[in-house]
Amino acid sequence: MYQIHCLNKISPVGTSRFGENYTIGAELAQADAVLVRSAAMHDMDLPENLLAIARAGAGVNNIPLDKCSEQGIVVFNTPGANANAVKELVICGLLMASRKVAKGIEWANTLKGQGDEVGKQVEKGKSAFVGPEISGKSLGVIGLGAIGILVANAAEALGMTVYGYDPYLSVDAAWGLSSNIHHARALDEIYANCDYITLHLPQTADTKGMINAETLEKMKDGVRILNFARGGLVKSADLIAALESGKAAAYVTDFPDDALLGTEGVTGIPHLGASTPESEDNCACMAVDQVKDYLENGNIRNSVNMPAVSMARAPGLTRICILHRNVPNTISQFSGAVGAAGVNIENMQSMSRGEYAYTIFDVSGDLSAGAVAGLQAMESIIRVRVID
User: Fold this and answer.
1) Model-level pTM?
2) Integer Cα distance of 302 and 74 in angstroms
3) I want to staple 189 with a disulfide (CB 3.0 to 4.6 A). Which of 89, 139, 152, 184 is the partner?
4) CB–CB of 131/99 below 8 Å?
5) Coil, helix or strand for 264?
6) Domains of the chain
């Protein structure tokens, strides 16, 4: 029986997938796995028996990844599960960056109480909220992950000329990208050619503040910028200065801050990108499925701190799962120890990720507790699990 602890409310559409071999609601101290959305975990004491943490969403800045890695806790996220929800809001933001819809609605509400004069006032005042169509304009999509690809394809279908930039574009992702998307080989190509720019990349040491005074200067006059990725990608002060000078015409963001609020040209949305019931259901289902596969089969998919390793189960074999440091000669040491225990290795898979690695052995024969203890005692090993 596996014990699951939820730190936030997780969609029952997802948690119902656990089945009868799971207890949901266990205390953290007894949990085999944790499901979390936004709860801060950095100051939590993580029990030694905790095997996995699954974030029902993409960002994992609320999870202490280094501590988890050292304790042999696999951290999962759910990339792409909320992609359609974010894509739809980006398209909405794209239109709001062009047409001053929000300001127009706000102004129209001030006409309440003017009776028959409302229609006349609307016709008289609507010119203040005029904006261009997006069809025929150019859009630069920076970051072609699950969300970026959907945005690029949708914008192309709406008649835009789309440039995409992503130096780490995977082969699988590329298959989903429309052949009409222009491949930008450098960010400067996006900056020089695009009327609109939308950001869809993680915030790292390299990307933090990437939209700043220097990069804004390279953009077309009147550029319109959308940020539904992370607030820190844009230097707010530099963006405000660009709006005031006319270099930028609009900024639509899902991450408003105090400086941006009330600034002319800024549309601040209260982080609604993934806030749909469908997105919450999708994220919960994906998180639960990944946790189940790891607990029951030792397979790792979509981990943010450990390598992806997945191997089909064969009937009658015992699976040994080893989280370890990525140092030379470890595989030969493991296989030697397993062979010395009198069991035969039928299948094996191993992958590394930075300083950590993960190895799965499927073995036949009787594996003794002493052999498992011998593996766990090896200096390079962080955690050993045996799954029958």
Assistant:
1) 0.82
2) 10
3) 184
4) yes
5) coil
6) 1-81+276-306 (3.40.50.720), 83-268 (3.40.50.720), 307-388 (3.30.70.260)
